[in-house]
Amino acid sequence: MFSVIENAPLSDPINIPEQKNIIDTIILNNKQRAGATMVILNELQSQVGYISEPMQVYVSKELDVPVSAIHGVVSFYSFFTTKPRGKHTIKFCMGTACYVGGTPQLIEKAKQSLGINPGQTTEDGMITLEVCRCVGACSQAPVVVVDEESHGRVKPNKFPQFIRQCQE
Ligand code: FES
Fold this sequence. Notes:
- This protein is 47% helix and 11% strand.
- The N and C termini lie far apart (43 Å).
- With 168 residues, it is α+β, with helices and mostly antiparallel strands.
- Helix 2 runs antiparallel to helix 3 (36-48).
- It has helices at residues 3-6, 17-30, 36-48, 53-63, 67-76, 96-101, 103-114, 159-167, and strands at 88-93, 127-132, 144-146, 149-151.
- The protein has a four-stranded mixed beta sheet, with helices on one face.
- The model has no long low-confidence stretch (mean pLDDT 93).
- FE2/S2 (inorganic) cluster binds at residues 93, 95-98, 134-138, 141, 143.
- FE2/S2 (inorganic) cluster is lined by residues 93, 95-98, 134-138, 141, 143.
Protein backbone atom coordinates (compact mmCIF):
# COMPACT_ATOMS: atom_id res chain seq x y z
CA MET A 1 0.00 0.00 0.00
CA PHE A 2 2.95 2.36 0.51
CA SER A 3 3.78 2.24 -3.19
CA VAL A 4 0.75 4.49 -3.74
CA ILE A 5 2.66 7.14 -1.81
CA GLU A 6 5.99 6.44 -3.51
CA ASN A 7 4.37 6.50 -6.95
CA ALA A 8 2.29 9.61 -6.28
CA PRO A 9 2.47 12.13 -9.14
CA LEU A 10 4.79 15.10 -8.59
CA SER A 11 1.73 17.36 -8.56
CA ASP A 12 0.22 15.46 -5.62
CA PRO A 13 0.14 17.47 -2.37
CA ILE A 14 2.20 14.71 -0.76
CA ASN A 15 5.09 15.69 -3.10
CA ILE A 16 4.79 19.46 -2.71
CA PRO A 17 6.84 20.52 0.34
CA GLU A 18 4.55 23.35 1.53
CA GLN A 19 1.47 21.18 1.20
CA LYS A 20 3.20 18.20 2.79
CA ASN A 21 4.02 20.47 5.75
CA ILE A 22 0.35 21.42 6.06
CA ILE A 23 -0.65 17.74 5.92
CA ASP A 24 1.90 16.75 8.58
CA THR A 25 0.91 19.63 10.86
CA ILE A 26 -2.79 18.73 10.62
CA ILE A 27 -2.05 15.09 11.43
CA LEU A 28 0.32 15.93 14.28
CA ASN A 29 -2.08 18.43 15.88
CA ASN A 30 -5.08 16.14 15.76
CA LYS A 31 -4.01 12.50 15.85
CA GLN A 32 -4.60 12.15 19.61
CA ARG A 33 -8.07 13.71 19.53
CA ALA A 34 -11.31 11.76 19.75
CA GLY A 35 -12.65 11.24 16.23
CA ALA A 36 -9.19 12.04 14.83
CA THR A 37 -9.92 10.56 11.40
CA MET A 38 -12.89 12.82 10.72
CA VAL A 39 -11.20 15.91 12.16
CA ILE A 40 -8.07 15.34 10.09
CA LEU A 41 -9.97 14.64 6.86
CA ASN A 42 -12.06 17.77 7.39
CA GLU A 43 -8.96 19.89 7.92
CA LEU A 44 -7.23 18.39 4.88
CA GLN A 45 -10.25 19.10 2.69
CA SER A 46 -10.47 22.69 3.95
CA GLN A 47 -6.77 23.55 3.87
CA VAL A 48 -5.46 21.49 0.93
CA GLY A 49 -8.71 21.56 -1.07
CA TYR A 50 -9.01 17.83 -1.72
CA ILE A 51 -7.85 14.44 -0.45
CA SER A 52 -5.98 12.50 -3.12
CA GLU A 53 -5.52 8.75 -2.98
CA PRO A 54 -1.86 9.04 -1.87
CA MET A 55 -3.03 11.44 0.88
CA GLN A 56 -5.60 8.87 2.02
CA VAL A 57 -2.93 6.17 2.19
CA TYR A 58 -0.60 8.52 4.06
CA VAL A 59 -3.29 9.38 6.63
CA SER A 60 -4.10 5.69 7.10
CA LYS A 61 -0.43 4.94 7.73
CA GLU A 62 0.01 7.84 10.16
CA LEU A 63 -3.15 7.02 12.12
CA ASP A 64 -2.74 3.28 11.84
CA VAL A 65 -6.28 2.99 10.45
CA PRO A 66 -7.09 0.71 7.48
CA VAL A 67 -7.02 2.63 4.19
CA SER A 68 -10.45 1.15 3.38
CA ALA A 69 -11.88 3.01 6.41
CA ILE A 70 -10.38 6.32 5.23
CA HIS A 71 -11.60 5.72 1.71
CA GLY A 72 -15.06 4.83 3.05
CA VAL A 73 -15.36 8.17 4.87
CA VAL A 74 -14.03 10.20 1.92
CA SER A 75 -16.42 8.58 -0.53
CA PHE A 76 -19.45 8.72 1.79
CA TYR A 77 -19.51 12.47 2.45
CA SER A 78 -19.99 14.71 -0.57
CA PHE A 79 -18.02 17.43 1.22
CA PHE A 80 -14.83 15.47 0.50
CA THR A 81 -13.30 15.38 -2.96
CA THR A 82 -10.39 13.34 -4.27
CA LYS A 83 -9.53 15.88 -6.99
CA PRO A 84 -9.21 19.67 -6.83
CA ARG A 85 -12.55 21.45 -7.20
CA GLY A 86 -13.02 24.17 -9.81
CA LYS A 87 -13.13 27.82 -8.85
CA HIS A 88 -16.94 27.57 -8.64
CA THR A 89 -19.11 24.65 -7.63
CA ILE A 90 -22.64 23.94 -8.81
CA LYS A 91 -24.38 21.34 -6.65
CA PHE A 92 -27.62 19.58 -7.48
CA CYS A 93 -29.72 18.39 -4.57
CA MET A 94 -30.54 14.71 -4.97
CA GLY A 95 -32.86 14.48 -1.95
CA THR A 96 -36.23 12.90 -2.69
CA ALA A 97 -38.23 16.13 -3.11
CA CYS A 98 -35.66 17.60 -5.49
CA TYR A 99 -35.17 14.37 -7.38
CA VAL A 100 -38.91 14.10 -7.98
CA GLY A 101 -39.09 17.84 -8.63
CA GLY A 102 -36.71 17.79 -11.57
CA THR A 103 -33.05 17.48 -10.52
CA PRO A 104 -32.34 14.82 -13.21
CA GLN A 105 -33.51 17.25 -15.94
CA LEU A 106 -31.31 20.00 -14.46
CA ILE A 107 -28.31 17.70 -14.46
CA GLU A 108 -29.02 16.78 -18.07
CA LYS A 109 -29.10 20.46 -19.01
CA ALA A 110 -25.84 21.06 -17.15
CA LYS A 111 -24.19 18.14 -18.93
CA GLN A 112 -25.29 19.50 -22.31
CA SER A 113 -24.13 23.02 -21.49
CA LEU A 114 -20.74 22.18 -19.98
CA GLY A 115 -19.89 18.77 -21.45
CA ILE A 116 -19.09 17.30 -18.02
CA ASN A 117 -20.82 14.99 -15.56
CA PRO A 118 -21.36 15.54 -11.85
CA GLY A 119 -18.05 14.86 -10.09
CA GLN A 120 -16.11 16.50 -12.93
CA THR A 121 -14.57 19.93 -13.49
CA THR A 122 -14.48 21.93 -16.72
CA GLU A 123 -11.12 21.93 -18.50
CA ASP A 124 -10.53 25.59 -17.67
CA GLY A 125 -10.86 24.73 -13.96
CA MET A 126 -13.76 27.17 -13.54
CA ILE A 127 -16.77 24.98 -12.71
CA THR A 128 -17.21 21.70 -10.84
CA LEU A 129 -20.56 19.91 -10.93
CA GLU A 130 -21.59 17.90 -7.88
CA VAL A 131 -24.63 16.21 -6.44
CA CYS A 132 -25.48 16.52 -2.75
CA ARG A 133 -27.96 15.25 -0.21
CA CYS A 134 -31.02 17.22 0.95
CA VAL A 135 -30.00 20.77 1.81
CA GLY A 136 -33.12 21.34 3.93
CA ALA A 137 -35.11 23.51 1.53
CA CYS A 138 -37.43 20.79 0.20
CA SER A 139 -40.38 23.17 -0.26
CA GLN A 140 -38.23 24.95 -2.87
CA ALA A 141 -37.45 21.80 -4.85
CA PRO A 142 -35.56 21.40 -7.07
CA VAL A 143 -32.68 23.19 -5.38
CA VAL A 144 -29.31 24.07 -6.92
CA VAL A 145 -26.47 25.50 -4.81
CA VAL A 146 -24.07 27.75 -6.70
CA ASP A 147 -21.00 28.18 -4.51
CA GLU A 148 -22.71 28.86 -1.15
CA GLU A 149 -25.93 30.35 -2.55
CA SER A 150 -29.08 28.21 -2.78
CA HIS A 151 -31.55 28.66 -5.62
CA GLY A 152 -35.01 27.11 -5.42
CA ARG A 153 -37.63 26.01 -7.97
CA VAL A 154 -34.94 25.99 -10.64
CA LYS A 155 -35.97 25.38 -14.25
CA PRO A 156 -33.51 23.98 -16.81
CA ASN A 157 -33.62 27.26 -18.77
CA LYS A 158 -32.14 29.04 -15.72
CA PHE A 159 -28.93 27.08 -16.07
CA PRO A 160 -27.13 29.39 -18.56
CA GLN A 161 -27.53 32.17 -16.00
CA PHE A 162 -25.68 30.11 -13.39
CA ILE A 163 -22.86 29.53 -15.85
CA ARG A 164 -22.61 33.24 -16.63
CA GLN A 165 -22.59 34.00 -12.90
CA CYS A 166 -19.65 31.60 -12.46
CA GLN A 167 -17.75 33.02 -15.42
CA GLU A 168 -18.04 36.67 -14.39
S1 FES B 1 -34.68 17.29 -1.11
FE1 FES B 1 -33.65 18.98 -1.96
S2 FES B 1 -33.73 20.41 -0.38
FE2 FES B 1 -34.62 18.65 0.52
